[in-house]
Write a structure and sequence with these properties.
Strand content: 5-15%
GO cellular component, one term: nucleus
Largest sheet: 2 strands, antiparallel
Number of helices: 17
Main location: nucleus
Subcellular location: Nucleus
Oligomer: single chain
Strand order of the largest sheet: 1-2
Distance between the termini: 75 Å
Protein name: HTH psq-type domain-containing protein
Radius of gyration: 21 Å
Shape: elongated
Helix content: 40-55%
Pfam families: HTH_psq
Length: 302
């Protein structure tokens, strides 16, 4: 009798399946079918009192890995084998982009355009579930048989480095659109339009500033530098963003430990030039905004 060939499954898919069942989002049968993992193995893992990320090890080979994408995810996100290992507290947006920029859903230009133009519909869908729960983004996969899931978060909701939130997804789409701007002649994003910005795929600065208005790009520092902070200042000036979020944005640090506000101060000539790209602004506006807002003055001059 020939040896029985063990069924293979995707490591990341099993993690998502275990979490989906534990959160009562779906039963064993549906989760096994949705994520293409063996039902018996899924049941065994769910019943163990260990985090899915620590429980699921490389016991099987990844299924349908395109150029090692999922293997790259495992290597670049530090999955701990110990339950009590301290978790990282700072989200690394540049790492997140490097890992996911080749995801299947980004290979379809219409998906990128849809996320940026209709992201509000996805946010409304997230509003229908409790914090910590995940939803499936219909028609979009990380890889074949690995659906794109995003988690609903509020303050203090635990989020793993590899998990998608609304802001992380939007920032990933923005980063991809920026790096591949020649492929996108007509990007639409409502927040950028509110700021009076116009998309022009042939103008690097216009593209960069337009996409810097996208939620979450403040963490994509390698691509967008301090420009999202400038967008935050303009949103605050127009009463479209609370000062608390602007200050939080300005405190985000790059790989050298410099805050976004300090990087902007170091590049003041560029910052002033970019500020004038917003419709109806002046250099006097920018200086007055900083000097007359105590929180910004402390952040900028502190």
């Amino acid at each position: 009798m020939p040896p029985v060939k063990r069924k293979t499954w995707d490591h990341n898919a099993m993690i998502q399946a275990v979490n989906a069942v534990r959160r009562n989002e779906m039963g064993y049968l549906r989760a096994a079918k949705q994520f293409s993992v063996p039902k018996d193995t899924l049941e065994r893992y769910v019943k163990k009192d260990v985090r899915a990320e620590d429980l699921v090890q490389f016991q099987y080979s990844p299924v349908s890995v395109s150029k090692g994408l999922l293997k790259f995810i495992m290597e670049n996100f530090e999955f701990s084998s110990k339950h009590d290992t301290p978790r990282k507290t700072t989200f690394n947006g540049s790492q997140f982009f490097s890992v996911y920029k080749d995801a299947e859903f980004l290979r379809i230009d219409a998906n990128v355009e849809k996320l940026l133009a209709q992201g509000y519909e996805l946010r409304k869908k997230l509003d229908t579930v409790d914090a910590g729960k995940t939803i499936i983004v219909e028609g979009m996969n990380l890889e074949r048989n690995t659906p794109l899931l995003i988690k609903k978060t509020v303050t203090n909701t635990p989020v793993e480095d590899y998990e998608f939130t609304f802001n992380r997804l939007m920032a990933l789409a923005a980063g991809y659109a920026y790096e591949n701007r020649k492929k996108f002649p007509n990007i639409q994003y409502s927040d950028a339009q509110v700021l009076g910005l116009v998309w022009d795929q042939n103008n690097n600065d216009k593209c960069k500033l337009y996409l810097s208005a996208v939620s979450g790009t403040e963490y994509m520092i390698d691509q967008f530098s301090f420009w999202p902070f400038l967008c935050g200042l303009r949103k605050f000036q127009l009463k479209k963003m609370p000062i608390k979020l602007v200050v939080k944005m300005g405190k985000i640090k790059n790989s050298e430990g410099e805050t976004m506000a300090s990087v902007m101060k170091q590049n003041l000539v560029t910052a002033k030039r970019i500020w004038l790209m917003f419709t109806g602004t002046s250099l006097r506006d920018l200086q007055t905004l900083i000097d007359d807002t105590p929180e910004l003055k402390k952040l900028y001059h502190g």
